[in-house]
Amino acid sequence: MTTVVAPKQSERASGASARPLTYTFTSESVTEGHPDKVCDTIADSILDAYIALDKRSRVACEALAKSGVVVLAGEITSVDSLDHVTIAREAIAKIGYTDPAEAFNADTVNILQHISGQAWEIGRGVDPSTSKCGEQGAGDQGIMFGYASDETPELMPLPILLAHRLAQGLADDRRGGTYPWLRPDGKTQVSVVYENGEPTRVSDVLVSTQHARDAKPETIRAYVTGTLAPRVLGRWADAETRVLVNPTGSFAEGGPSADCGVTGRKIIVDSYGGYARHGGGAFSGKDPSKVDRSGAYFCRWAARQIVKHGLARRCEIQVAYAIGVAQPISVKVDAFGTGDERACAELARTFDFRPAAIIEQLDLLRPIYRQTTNYGHFGKPGLPWEA
Known about the structure:
Blueprint: E1 2-5, E2 22-30, H1 35-53, E3 58-66, E4 69-77, H2 84-95, E5 110-116, H3 120-126, E6 142-149, H4 158-176, E7 182-195, E8 198-211, H5 217-233, E9 242-245, E10 261-262, H6 267-270, H7 291-308, E11 314-321, E12 330-334, H8 341-348, H9 355-362
C-alpha cells in the first residue's frame, strides 16, 4: 500500500481543487418519497432483515419502481430466504405510499423478483478461509472517497447539510399532519455563497414538493417561505435570498406513479452534494463486505479524525481496492492546503483500511442501514462512522 500526500495549495496548477475567492456552490437533496429513494429504502430494508437473520449474509440488492410495479434484482446468500415481498410492501407503506387511488401503493403494487446467490468466485475472494490473501478480501474493486470540513459542527459542507434539512423538514411536516396536502415526493436545492473559502450566506433555495391536487400554489409557497425555509436556514438566509417553490406551477403527480426510480441513482445526494468527490459506487442494498459502502464510510471516519485532531480544516481521503485483496492498493490524503499535509498522511497511515478491520472497528454487522438511506449517509448523529 502506498500513501500519497497531495501537493500544497500554492504548488497546484489551477484545477478542480482550486476554487476562486468568491463563488457560489449548490447541492441538492430529495425526500424519502422520491422514486430513487423509494428503491434505496426497499434495498436497505431487505439488507437489514438479512443481517438481523444472519450477520454473515452477503447482500447486493437493487430495486426498480414504476407505476404499479417493483422489480427486485441482485444476489443474496444467507442461511435462509426471507419474504422480500412483505419487506418491500412494509417499506413502501412506511414512506407513505398508501393511497389506493395511486398506481403505486403498498397494498396493490406488483413485486417481481430476479435474485440469485452470490457468485462463488466473489465469495471465495471475500471469505477468509478461501481467499488467496488469507483474510477477508474486498468484495469488489473500486475507489472510495471520504471528506470532512470544519465549516459546520457536523464536519460537512453547508450546502448539502441545508438541502438535507429542507428535505427532511418536508417529510417531518407531512407526517406531523399540520400540512395535510403534502405528499411524499420532493426535492430541495440550496446555493451557498463562499468568500475566502468560508460560507457566508444562502443566495438561492429551490423546493419542489408533491402536493394534493386541490392544494393552491399560494398556500404551498406561503408554507415554504414563511415556515419551512426560515426554520431550516436560520441565520444563513437574508432578505436577498431567493426562494423558488414548485417552479412548474404544480407537482400533484409524483413518486413512482409518475417517474421511474432505481437504486443507487442518488449517490451525490448520499455523500457530499458534489463538494467532494465520489468513487461512483452506490451504498444502498450492499452488505459491508462491499467496500464501496464500508470503505466510503471508513474514509469519512478517517477524514473526520484528521479534522478533529486539528491537522487540517478540510480533508479528503481516497482509497483504492482490488477484489479479493485485503490491503488497499493506495491511500491518498489531500488537505487542500488547509493544514499539515504530511502530518495528515502520517495519521492516515495509522488507520487500518482492510475490510475486516473496518467492519470490526465500526461494528458494521448490525441492521443499521435503513437509518442511513435518506437525508445523507454522512453528518447524521448515531452512525458509527460519525462517532
